[in-house]
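Example record for the data management plan.
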Amino acid sequence: MADEEVVVEETPVEEPVEAASPAEAEVAEETPSEKESKTLLSGDGGDGEGEGEATGAPEEYEFTPPDGLEIDPEKLEAFGEYAHSLGLSQDQFQKLIEYDIDRSANAQKSMAEAYGERISSWADATKVDKELGGEKLPENLGLAKKAMEKYASPELAKLIDSPSASNPDGLGLGNHPEVIRLFYRVGKAVSESELISGETKSEVGNRYERIYPTMFKPAE
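Corresponding structural encoding:
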């Protein structure tokens, strides 16, 4: 029997694949695939390529202020330019200005209420003041008012009066104890001066004779 030839098939040996380094793997993850593309709903633009951005902002904004309210045209124009850069729509522009108007009105109202409380606190301080307040308060206020009416200018009188729609310059200083004290002392000084000037010459002579008797002593 002839020897049979045995054929041994060689199994191909696969070459080991070199693993990617951590740095290369990180770069691969950050690099977008060539097949990736921006979509219309991705918010990148609207043309699928991300070129240009649809903002919805009009060419020019319009705003009609409420009756009785004036808005600086230059400030409105400047805000319109900024709103356009943000891509705000006409409706968003309108709502933002209306919000700012309400915010300003509420802020002014709060300031007015706080100042009104301050004016009231001045009045309370005057009522308990040692020089002005107490039982003689009405009398002292009357004296101070006479001096104010005589010497205060119309402009100062407006500041002394309380703030109101008819008197926007009012500061309510007429309640401040130091302001009242000033006019009270002026009124008191004027009243005393008028009493002295109202005396007759004989009365004045008699008064000084009592004060300086030696001056009126007959010569020997």
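Summary line stored alongside the record: The chain has a mean pLDDT of 76.
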